[in-house]
Design a protein that fits this description.
elongated
């Protein structure tokens, strides 16, 4: 488990992380999301002691990272896949870490096989592609068979087979009861793999929620239904967990808490004709963009002006 309390990091006058409170629990994949410059990498660096907090605390399994006698067995981290000696082979890189932590050679062989590095294990890491470098970084993170796994952008450079592999790896680790904390800019992957989300913007916590709740709050399960009997339809649909809105006098209602199928069935059972029945679909990416709109440090523009010509 990872727990942050009022975690803060300042660089001079700039506050990179601003009083973050969150808990990453075992047995689930927790996505760590935020725009560029949101403070994700700085937070991850503080978790493993690479940066010292200006204020607040962060612990892994109840202790600061530096206080663990066998840190690789507590938390395996991938923060920068290319932070290896380019002249070393993948095998030698992993063996060097294993020797310093009392990890047997057989575990090195296991993570090499687990990450699909068998064919390049004896090759120099400096010649690796981005994807193979990612696999080596993940192998190093798993070397100590850690209870907590923390990966920063693990799918960068991976081909489709590699993306599927990392997706299955993350869900498998969580199913074993491990704490899995992963950052990514690929919302489509987070929607498939993450159960819980921690979202930050400009160093501050914006959301600590599930994927389903975030999408629902963005209107992802809203159904629009229209009938010439809106008052009667409202009575038929009302119930625990159901929210119904609509302007007075309008034939149109907006319903959350019921699927379009359930609404249609109830209307048919009470012989209420419907003019419209449509569900609004909101993706995780859309919900994320709505939430972080005011926390984006750099905004692009879709208008391109040609020098010397009027726009």
């Amino acid at each position: 488990m990872i727990e942050a309390q009022q975690l803060t990091k300042r660089y001079g006058e700039k506050t990179a992380v601003d009083r973050l409170d969150f808990v990453v629990k075992p047995g689930t994949v927790t996505g760590f999301l935020g725009p560029n410059g949101a403070g994700k990498s700085t937070t991850m660096r503080m978790i493993v002691g690479l940066d010292a907090p200006t204020a607040g605390t962060v612990t892994v399994n109840g202790r600061p990272y530096a206080e663990h006698t066998a840190p690789l067995q507590e938390v395996g981290a991938l923060l920068e896949a290319k932070s290896i000696h380019p002249g070393r082979s993948a095998f030698d890189h992993l063996m060097a870490q294993a020797y310093t932590h009392g990890i047997p050679r057989r575990r090195v062989d296991e993570v090499i096989e687990m990450t699909g590095l068998q064919s390049v294990a004896r090759k120099r890491a400096g010649a690796f592609s981005l994807g193979m470098g990612q696999r080596l970084g993940i192998a190093a993170a798993l070397l100590g068979d850690p209870a907590t796994v923390m990966l920063d952008e693990p799918v960068n450079g991976l081909d489709p087979e590699g993306v599927l592999w990392i997706r299955n790896l993350l869900t498998g680790l969580a199913a074993e009861g491990r704490t899995v904390f992963v950052s990514s800019h690929l919302m489509s992957e987070m929607a498939l793999v993450a159960d819980h989300l921690i979202i930050v913007g400009r160093g501050r916590l914006l959301a600590d929620t599930t994927v389903q709740d975030l999408v629902r709050h963005a209107g992802g399960d809203t159904v629009t239904v229209a009938s010439e009997q809106p008052a009667r339809l409202r009575e038929v649909l009302a119930g625990p967990g159901v929210e119904i809105t609509g302007e007075v006098g309008s034939e149109e209602l907006h319903v959350t808490g019921l699927t379009a199928r359930a609404i249609g069935i109830r209307a048919a059972e009470h012989r209420i004709p419907l003019f419209e029945l449509s569900a609004r679909t909101v993706s995780l990416e859309q919900a994320f963009m709505d939430l972080t709109r005011d926390a984006v440090e750099y905004h692009g523009t879709t208008t391109v002006e040609t020098p010397g010509r009027a726009a």
